Amino acid sequence: MRVAVLAHGKFPDRAKTAVGVLRYADYDVVAVLDRERAGSRVTDHVPAVQDAPIVAGFGEVPEPVDALLIGIAPIGGGFEESWRPDVIAALTRGCDVISGLHYFLTDDEEFARLAAENDCELQDVRRPPDDLSVSEGLADGVDAEVILTVGTDCSVGKMTTTMELAQDARKAGYDAAVIPTGQTGIMIEGWGTPIDRVVSDFTAGAVEEMIREVGDNHDYLFVEGQGSIVHPAYSAVTCGILHGAMPDALVLCHEAGREVIHGYESFPLPPIEEYVDLYEGLAAPVSDTPVVAGALDTSDLDDAAARQALTEYESAIDVPATDVLRYDTDDVLEAIL
Amino acid sequence: MRVAVLAHGKFPDRAKTAVGVLRYADYDVVAVLDRERAGSRVTDHVPAVQDAPIVAGFGEVPEPVDALLIGIAPIGGGFEESWRPDVIAALTRGCDVISGLHYFLTDDEEFARLAAENDCELQDVRRPPDDLSVSEGLADGVDAEVILTVGTDCSVGKMTTTMELAQDARKAGYDAAVIPTGQTGIMIEGWGTPIDRVVSDFTAGAVEEMIREVGDNHDYLFVEGQGSIVHPAYSAVTCGILHGAMPDALVLCHEAGREVIHGYESFPLPPIEEYVDLYEGLAAPVSDTPVVAGALDTSDLDDAAARQALTEYESAIDVPATDVLRYDTDDVLEAIL
């Protein structure tokens, strides 16, 4: 499938869905929409992903194209009205529109009408199934080892770490699958449940259901974590995944230099070592779940500083760590597998 | 308002909504509907609540009556078809119907039609508002002191403790209000948001919104907690309330003798003292929130055993505790106010 990816004003640093799709999905990306970067190319900004031109609007997306994918997610998950002309242009050209926003495109009268008129589909991947239920506390009954990525904050690399570790485990000959819990993971894997969107009573149950659905068919499940257990807004999602997944091991993800909660700057991050106690202590009554490895995003640092930051991070959490995009994952995988 | 309370086959022990309404709500309860107890009176079964006759069906409810309130919640929150004649009789007599079931009465065609024909209202208190959003981390900006009840498990007295402490604080001359987060609390207080039904991303935000709505009008807010931070299924709700409320103090609720999670008997409760560390440790990155008091449900024990259990409980959590229905709340309120 050939897709254009909308990322106005946010590519690449605040467009994690767009970058995730460019890096991991099977889609052929024909263009990225970003008014502020128009005229440049994807690889001018992000190394080692598939390349594509960056254009100002859907009118400049080259044919053929099958779908427009919303590649950014503002806090709150609303729809920015400035994107409406691009969505209208896509639907008018007969393209599907794939969105992970909290705002459901199928509930927008204009989009629904245009989609019907042009015989194309609005895919709201963040709309959860309506047959979810409460957890039964049975996720640890599956044959697979379950590895959950957890974070010190939002946007510290949980999805990337999940994808890289699963990919590298497969390359090393292990049967590893991903349990996608968020919009980007779902867009990449083509299935999954958007845990942040389920009824809060069913948070753990929705994760348990996915693990039990595929767990006996694989040796390792890498569960995409969400949020952070210390996040003022999103910790409920994190906690539900931690208890619903009943994981065998945790990988603690962090961004080097991050000192306060992103978007909630009055909340400082606790010391790194406290996270290990918090996650293990909170997991313990439901499952015995040690932090066995770490992942550190060092993309803002030069190589010497990155290696220094990794050494400090490993010392703080007392297990092997790596930057999954910059260095190899051998030691981390050895700790996990 | 004069209400009849439906509790067929469950009054009083498995009708916690009915008992909560009888004990705390401002409604004038004119009858309880329970086929199996018809002919007796409320105070034959529950001491120290408002009295009313128990009748077999809505046809026997004395005039005048303004509403029928569904006072029981079966596992799963479904609607029992055996209740349909009572709901129809109420609507036909022009009464509103108030329900906290997961099954929404407004989605039932027959009830919706009868309500319209008879100009009465179907109130589904478990339907959350549709304009909720993520927390901004601002709940501690209100003038009031915020006190949250937390639990070792579900059904250990968080709602009762919340209501009793708020009531006793008011009796002692303090301006105290309740923040209702579950169906019974909402029915008693006449407002509130059913947190277990909101989208998980908005769990903290929904609590924050309620606190900010009324916080500047009161000196003390008693927030009704839900679930438990160690619950395999419901911990997401608990965690979201803990971080969304940004409380100044916690009251840890427990039932004497409870050793395993109710309904999840393969999960033992952690030692009581660990709960203090878990709740305080999890709260700390968002708000400095000590456990300042405890509430112990001793209803299964005789007086000597109850006092012994309270002594042990106080020693484990190292703060004053009481059984809020059995003994006075003086020491606990002194620790809070």
TrEMBL record, chains A, B:
Ranges where the D-glutamate N-acetyltransferase-like C-terminal domain occurs: 134-332
Domain D-glutamate N-acetyltransferase-like N-terminal: 35-128
InterPro entries: DgcN-like, DgcN-like_C, DgcN-like_N, P-loop_NTPase
Pfam families for this protein: DUF1611, DUF1611_N
Name of the protein in question: NAD dependent epimerase/dehydratase family
Source organism per UniProt: Natranaeroarchaeum sulfidigenes
